[in-house]
Amino acid sequence: MVNTAVELAGRDARAADRVARSAERTEQAFLAALERSRARGELSARHRDLRPLARYLANSLRGLQVTARMGADAEELRDVIGVTLAALR
Hints:
Oligomer: single chain
Number of strands: 0
Strand content: under 5%
Largest sheet: none
Radius of gyration: 15 Å
């Protein structure tokens, strides 16, 4: 979906719609997971509004996909994942 977003979404309405729906599903999945984590007491109390955090995680996922396609090794990807997960603390 990242390729479609970058290559087509700016000039193809159908592609843009597919990209938007995919992004929304990803964000909603992260939001649902964060809400479950909050209910179990696993999230810091500083996270009052979970939607921005869900958006951040969805954006980080897309960035990881691009970074992996650029040839990053496992260590680099783990470093990025570690920093991303630190946002949940």
